Amino acid sequence: MTRPSTTRRLPIDGFELAHREIGLAPTDLAHGDQAWVPAVVPGGVHESLLALGTIPDPYVDRNEDAVRWMEERDWWYRTTFDSPPDLRPGAGTRLVFHGLDTVADVWLNGELLGHHENMFRPAEYEIAELLRASNDLLIRFSPPLAGLSASPASVAQLQRVAATLMPDLDADVDVSGFSPDLTVATQRRKATMSWGWDFGPRVPSIGIWRPVELIITPCARITGHHVRTDAIDHDAETAELTVLVEVETGPAAGTLHASIELTSATGRSHHITIPVRDGVAEGHITVDDAELWWTHDLGDPSLYQVRIELGTDEGPCDVVTDRIGIRTIAVNRAPDAEGGRLFQFVLNDVPVFARGANWLPASMLVGSVTPERHRELISLAREGGMTMLRVWGGGVYEHDGFYTAADEAGVLIWQDFMFACADYPSEDAGLQREVQLEAEYQLRRLRNRASLALWSGNNEVHLLHGFAYQEYEPGNWGWHFFHKILPETVRRLDPTATYWPGSPWGEDTPEGFMAVNGVLDGDRHAWEVWHGFDAGAGGGEEYASVGEARHFRRYARDRGRFISEFGIHSSPALSTLQRWLPAAELAIHSPSFDAHNKDHPKDKGDALLEVVTGVPTTIEEYVDFTMASQAEGMKFGIEHYRRRQPICSGTLIWQFNDVWPGITWSLVDYDTVPKAAYYATARAYAPVLASFVHHDGELSLWVSNSGRTPVSTTATLSLRGFDGSRLLQEDVPVRIAAATSERVWAAPLNGSTQTYAWVGSEDGTFPDNRLFFTDVKDLPLPDAELRTTVRVTGSASAEVTIEADQFAYLVRVTSTHPAARFSDNYFDLTPGQTRTVRVTDLPRDFDPADLTAASYVGAGR
């Protein structure tokens, strides 16, 4: 018998592109005067023209407006490819576009293959009958919102939301622009952020954003697989796994079987062979000496190599390799001590306090984000103590490299489905079909990821629908997606995974429609701080000023079970502003400065700064003051929520990264420079945290332990004056059980603007921490002298040791090289204290004089 041939996957590249007026057919292309130019694939039209220098960078100055025309043209891609000379007659041959962004028509050798308008699933075409020796491939991308008009129901919903959130608007004001183009964009499966958001510009990506390949199947091919952990026996150190292999047969397929081999990082192997019946092979494996996957703080994120060979007795037909983690992940929603319900992730039977942030695409131009950039950002998240990232529902299902980096780093992923902030016409049959196919594809693609912790239906769709209508009854607003299609698809394709209807979501009946963002059940978005209104935590009474209503002190009143969004605006690093804004525009509220702030009004943060730091008058002060405000706010909020462990079981900051060089809520700016809040968060996210509370004339010390084992140490606390005096010092024995938080010390103490509380541990169990008794602007911060020593440790690394003669606030090592990485930064120093900062990723043979130290620009004023 003839030995079967294996499935081949051949990349197709060499694309060119050109733009034309809207609506031309392939036979009309010669009518345009635009030449064909090389196309960046994967990527898009913006990246292609940027590479040629024919358009200005949309991120520089106000060039966003200069490229607006690009979304109003048809964009054509073309290439030629040869058929394999050994292609057998009758072999199944599919042309697969792994990502078309977004409204596309595809022709092969002059024949229309089909129409596609979903960037979140592949376009696949059987082309065996159309192939020639040399083949011409042509794709037309129409304007992303082509053929759509605003939905009256969506307009009405947004008007109601605007009236609720902005009740002072005149009744006759047209608020249909409250969220521009959302009323249209909900009808197309494309990243909702494409048309601008409060963190980014209107630069909708267009083009071939993921690879293109030819898949030739003479025998059979593997179309999906799932290796899932059903149970772990910790005493026996074994794990029970189910293996599922989904198969598409070709014309030469005989009796098929799937052979699966798992190999651990230490070389232990397990093997099983399963017959294929009705296109599926399913079996079970018991893994001895199981090496579990953990988040990086709880253990090693061990991964197993998986090799799946599909074949007959005569030989292999297809081979797929993967890496999986043996772990169980569940969400504990048991009743809690305060009369609500927990929302607690449990990893391998260990309760988790999720410490992390919300993830945005690393660029508006989503197709050209590289695996290296994803790895760099995930590495920063891990180094910042983060154990979870939430992939936000207004962006994209990320590239494979993102999930690979998370798997390896031991960082959990909360995965939103891509719906955000508006009612969706979920009773539309065509849109239902797209959502069904999209969900099936993404589940099959991502279900093997060790890092994937939860599937969530949407971002804030329930919340905003509730603001508008005060109910969540079934209807044409997304209900069919979030409560039928998506949960049923998750149960069918990823049966051990947790599905959550949306973020936020909660079901505590006494809280009424606000239970969706309430404090007694589920997750919540804590936007009382920054926006200043009551979003469900209570505390909507009158405040002394707008700044007080937006102040991070409001976090102390939040009793939420899991805080999946909270944040404060800040500037990126000054070096980032200097790179992307013209020198003449480096001024507060200059036209270019304000264009890089998409929140409204542009001076919204000034009210908070007025209370916390004072209002800045120079660009240098703006950078420092906003960074201080954000750092203090994130520190305060995280400490409060962690003290509530286990009743509160997670905090995800809005937002981790940026889509462009903007003034946003991010912890790491677009140039991947961490802000002050990144370092404040890293210290607050340490596995063990000591934090102070000052309330009603009492100072107390709490210790929070988010690890797997009890902690024993001695905390040394003191009350100190900014003049260098020491008013109180005490050693406090500490023993804290795993996954909990306790008050370990308290004393009556009023505190004053002249003093601060400080705590440390001799054995380094937790990082040093302090408490100010007033806002930063009212502190008598001395003008400390920083003595700095630089020691070169390698061709691209150094250690910088800093000592302060007086209390020094927000001390940081600075470098002329934005790519430099620091082991710590933006910390406080007490008189005589030294701190050594390791600096890496410097240019080879750097000048040590480029490394200097500075502190807060407001000190000594």
Automatic annotation (TrEMBL):
Residues 781-841 form the Beta-mannosidase Ig-fold domain. Gene3D superfamilies: Galactose-binding domain-like, Glycosidases, Immunoglobulins. It comes from the Bacteria. Its main location: secreted. Keywords: Glycoprotein, Glycosidase, Hydrolase, Secreted. GO terms for molecular function: hydrolase activity. Residues 697-778 form the Mannosidase Ig/CBM-like domain. Its EC number is 3.2.1.25. It is found in: Secreted. It catalyses: Hydrolysis of terminal, non-reducing beta-D-mannose residues in beta-D-mannosides. InterPro entries: Beta-gal/glucu_dom_sf (IPR036156), Beta-mannosidase-like_N2 (IPR054593), Beta-mannosidase_GH2 (IPR050887), Beta-mannosidase_Ig (IPR041625), Galactose-bd-like_sf (IPR008979), GH (IPR017853), Glyco_hydro_2_AS (IPR023232), Ig-like_fold (IPR013783). Residues 32-210 form the Beta-mannosidase-like galactose-binding domain. Residues 221-327 form the Glycoside hydrolase family 2 immunoglobulin-like beta-sandwich domain. Pfam families: Glyco_hydro_2 (PF00703), Glyco_hydro_2_N2 (PF22666), Ig_mannosidase (PF17753), Mannosidase_ig (PF17786). PROSITE patterns: GLYCOSYL_HYDROL_F2_2 (PS00608). Pathway: Glycan metabolism; N-glycan degradation. Belongs to the glycosyl hydrolase 2 family. Beta-mannosidase B subfamily. This is Beta-mannosidase B.
